Amino acid sequence: MKNKIQHLTKRQWIIWGALLLVSVFVLLNKDIVTSLLQGDIDEVQLFLERNIGYALFFMALVMIIQNSFTIFPLILVITINITLFGFINGFLWSWFTSIIASVIVLYGVRYVFQEIIIEKFNKGLIDKVDANGFAYVLQGRLFPFIPTSLINILSGLSTIRIIPFTIATAIGNFLYFFVLALIPAGILSSDVDEYVIFGVIFATILIYYVVKYLKHHKKKEKEKTEPAE
Fold first, then answer.
1. Are 74 and 80 contacting, i.e. CB atoms less than 8 angstroms apart?
2. 144 Cα distance to chain centroid
3. pLDDT in tens, 37-95
4. SS3 of 192, please?
5. How many CA atoms does the CB half-sphere of 32 hold within 13 Å?
6. Structure-model confidence comparison of residues 11 and 39, the more confident one
7. DSSP per-residue letters across 131-182
8. How far is it, in rounded angstroms, from Cα 84 to Cα 58?
9. Dist. CA 72–CA 78, nearest whole Å
């Protein structure tokens, strides 16, 4: 055990330290965390609106937890942010912290927990991320049939580079979060804004198929340039 501790890299020390701080923070704020788990938005708002700076920090940690384990519904996190900071600021804070949280989870899995958890996941899923990379992550963000945390973990177990992962996450989460943010804002019930909703959905589908087409085209061009055996 002592030898394992001595061989931890600086990056691993930072990640383990961050996990410890998050655990301590959750224990010290167990009442508000309980309210969050119960979906009691009024209680959470009452606690956090006294200090906006603390609220920003707290909701960022909640987003990290959500991207690690998905124990908080994403719509709940976005709703609380919008309630506390307003529609635009709440949406942007949700989006920004989701990107940071995704990168943190990817690095944590790749450099600390990979050897521990890789055997628990289907190799076929990891191979899909390896093969599709950007497109796989973008598709997962736009059509979240797979939990956010699982996409982050699979990406950490794969060989996808951080830049494509971050860009795919930023694009996918921006569009998906915007649609989700319309629900607590009450815009989804407005007939006037139906065109906005359909526009966002159309743009989401269009981006997905454009990326898919470009990837297929690139693959065909590569096959043409490769010498025949």
1. no
2. 10
3. 777 777 787 778 777 888 898 899 889 989 988 888 888 899 989 988 989 999 999 99
4. coil
5. 18
6. 39
7. HHTHHHHHHHHHS-SS-HHHHHHHHHHS---HHHHHHHHHHHHHHHHHHHHH
8. 12
9. 10
Residue 102 and residue 110 in contact, taking contact as beta carbons nearer than 8 Å: no
Look up tokens 């950007």; give the residue.
134
User: What is the pTM assigned to this prediction?
Assistant: 0.74
Amino acid letter, residue 190: S
Number of residues written out for the chain: 229
Cα distances (Å, whole numbers) of residue 49 to 27, 30, 59, 177, 186: 20, 17, 12, 22, 21
pLDDT digits (tens, 9 = 90+) for 213-228: 777 767 776 666 665 5
Phi, psi of 152, deg, nearest 5: -65, -45
Q: How far apart are CA 166 and CA 173, in angstroms?
A: 10
